Amino acid sequence: MKRIRLIAIVAVLPLQLTAQTYTHPTTGIASEYVGTCQTATCTGTYYDNGGAGGNYADNIPSVYRVFCPNSAGNCVRLTFTQMSMEGMFDPAGPTPLDCYYDYLTIGNGPTQNSPVIDQAPSSAATTTGRICGAPAVPFTYTATGASGCLTVRMTSDISLNSTGFTATVSCVPCAGGPNGTDNNDCSNATPICSNANVGANSTGPGIAAEGCSGSVCPAGGENHSNWFRFTIQTTGTFNFTINPSNAADDYDYTLYGPGVTCGALGAPVRCSDSGLTGATGLAAGAVDNSEDVNGDKLTATLNAVAGQTYYLMVDEWTPTGAGYTLSFSGTASLDCTILPVELKDFSAQYIQEAESVDLYWSTESEVNNDYFTLEKSRDGKNFEFVTFVDGAGTTNHEQMYFVNDRENETGVVYYRLKQTDFDGKEAYSKVVSVNIVPEMKDEVYIYPSPTQEDCFVSFYSKVEETAEMNILDATGKVIETRNIQIIKGGDNNFRVEMASFRKGIYFVQITSETKSLSGKIVKE
């Protein structure tokens, strides 16, 4: 039967997320300051440990938690809508005592020592970045950089407290944020195909919260992580060493297996959360299988059996970006399953003028390659068919391939290739992604939503013009109207004051000679 090649255009509705509630921990895990596993989310409400109606606890010893985005191309944003910390702000006070007693600090990154963001409101803007007292709300912190994460650290003294804080967790598109395709996540683990050394570096924990037991090791989960997978080719002893390029860096590791999957990693078979710097890994002579922050950085040799598959997470606690070398020793040898064609390149690019995605890939050589299947996904996990592309069979010459996919929705789109041999064997390529941000299209982006106070309506425009912006309630009644001036190709960003609105669903409509845009606001 002849195979028919069709391009399938699938309309995918945005994933509806239910807002969750998060509270700040009061004690650290296993002698560390991290109080809970890293959280990957773009929605929710965040309270101190007293919750919505109670005061926070006394004697919180600088315990922190981390929020990271759960979608590519985004950074976490915290919008504080209520703040009352016992004590006072004294701009003339001696550093670091310009915030007394109880306070928060916000770090730009996923680790305890991420750079503190000093952008607190003027009523609590300290030289140390501390937030204290009762500053005017709302005020906002937005992550920048490759991780897209924010770290919140809380300190309270041994007596007296107050009502604490409430913050809305959201995400905003950001340049340079996590791309969803690097090996920062288990699903994108790099295959290790031999015992040769591997050089690597990591910029963040990816977009999935994983690799965290919430107990001794790994206590707080990922910080700056890389994931690898390998299969034991010959039975024997297995050791590895992580050698930091900067000897002052602190690296940790977690080994999962055998026979686990990314969705069900289970308990690690080896793990070190040691707070020491320098080389670390599995070593002959070591006797423990797991160690907390007080460990010596070495755990016991693994007796590996041929055919067993493992996942290794290498995690950098110090955010220096210097990188490391991963080397192997012992009598066991390693193998992997790779694509049976030598794939040279695979890339995706959004073409604004055509409002479509161009996908290119090329091969150095092919052996018995029948065809490629291009697949795409909205969540990076569940993929759908796009089209077939015939392969070149067997060749030692470079082959180039191209597909145009008319993708019309704002957000991140993931693509992968499934390669099929003439005998029916299949293998998958790496995953690539395209982040179609609102600035690329005439679409409205509203943040934060849900909101308790104000929100912002943002969109891109191809022309400069005057428009009318209406706010409607759930019945369609217009409750606010204003004229706005739209900038061509610029950042059109308009504040909507929601403090006086009742809880419920509202709609934004923007109308001009060239466009008719709409969006939804949820008022909590």
Précis, in short:
The protein is mainly beta. The protein has no helices and 36 strands.
Number of strands: 36
- CATH hierarchy, class of the largest domain: Mainly Beta
Distance between the termini: 57 Å
> What share of residues is helical?
under 10%
What is the global morphology?
Answer: flat
Biggest β-sheet: count, sense, barrel? 7 strands, mixed
Count of alpha/pi helices: 0
Task: Give the full name of the CATH homologous superfamily of the largest domain.
Answer: Spermadhesin, CUB domain
Descriptive overview:
- The chain is an all-beta fold.
- The protein has 4 domains: 21-173, Jelly Rolls (Sandwich); 186-335, Jelly Rolls (Sandwich); 341-436, Immunoglobulins (Immunoglobulin-like, Sandwich); 442-523, Immunoglobulin-like (Sandwich).
- The protein contains no helices and 36 strands.
- It has strands at residues 21-23, 39-40, 43-47, 61-68, 74-84, 103-108, 139-142, 150-155, 164-173, 190-191, 198-200, 224-234, 236-244, 251-256, 270-272, 280-282, 290-291, 298-299, 302-304, 309-316, 324-329, 333-335, 341-351, 356-377, 383-395, 399-405, 411-421, 426-428, 432-436, 445-447, 454-459, 465-472, 478-486, 492-497, 504-511, 516-523.
- The strands form 7 sheets. Strands 10, 12, 14, 15, 17, 20 and 22 form a 7-stranded mixed beta sheet that branches. Strands 23, 24, 25, 26, 27, 28 and 29 form a 7-stranded antiparallel beta sheet that branches. Strands 11, 13, 16, 18, 19 and 21 form a 6-stranded mixed beta sheet that branches.
- It is flat, with a radius of gyration of 26 Å.
- The termini are far apart.
- 43% of the residues are buried.
